[in-house]
Design brief:
198 residues, isomerase, alpha+beta, 9 strands, 20% helix, single chain
Length: 198
């Protein structure tokens, strides 16, 4: 089965620009795969919820996380003012560039999200996926994609993938390599200026 996560852009795609103090990260969203997560993200973005929110957790060769107005990693609410359920799909995964919901366990999604930045998948992880096999959600084309694009396969079926970066991974990398202090919080504040829905 085709991995549509990497499809070329189409006119019907739902797109957004995450404008940060380091530059713009352009993402396509997957409303057919993760309707709740996409509705939540779009509505919060349109309401200005993410304006001036910092990237509160940044780990190089892993991911960059934001979406908490408190900036602590403990805050943030969904548009329903309660956590909403996970939405997983066999063919949409935490590859490099994936836009994923952060959570505190199953079905605890709020406003926080992260972008996967890890740009390689070590041979030991490829081996691990092969051992898990197709019956555990790792058919050959998924393993091949992780080998080609990189990513964090251990987050699959734990974090909802609701979009993917199609331009601006250089900005993601720049944010990821910034100096951090306690709790992986950047020493120099890096913010979302706003999120434009295109």
């Amino acid at each position: 089965m085709t991995l549509h996560q990497f499809d070329e852009l189409k006119k019907s795609d739902v797109l957004a620009n995450i404008n940060t103090t380091k530059g713009t990260i352009k993402v396509k969203l997957f409303p057919n795969i993760a309707p709740l997560a996409v509705e939540n993200f779009l509505t919060l973005a349109k309401n200005g919820y993410y304006d001036n929110v910092i990237f509160h957790r940044v780990i190089n060769d892993f991911m960059i996380q934001t979406g908490d107005p408190e900036g602590t990693g403990m805050g943030g609410n969904s548009i329903w003012n309660k956590p909403f359920k996970d939405e997983f799909d066999l063919y949409y995964r935490n590859f490099r560039g994936a836009l994923s919901m952060a959570n505190a366990g199953p079905n605890t999604n709020g406003s926080q999200f992260f972008i996967v930045q890890k740009n390689n998948t070590e041979p030991k992880f490829i081996e691990q996926m092969r051992e898990m096999g197709e019956e555990n959600g790792y058919p050959e084309n998924i393993i091949d994609a992780y080998e080609k694009f990189g990513g964090t396969f251990w987050l699959d079926f734990k974090h909802t993938v609701f979009g993917h970066v199609y331009s601006g991974m250089d900005i993601v990398d720049e944010i990821a390599t910034t100096r951090v202090g306690i709790n992986d919080k950047p020493i120099e504040e890096i913010k979302i200026n706003d999120i434009e829905i295109l």
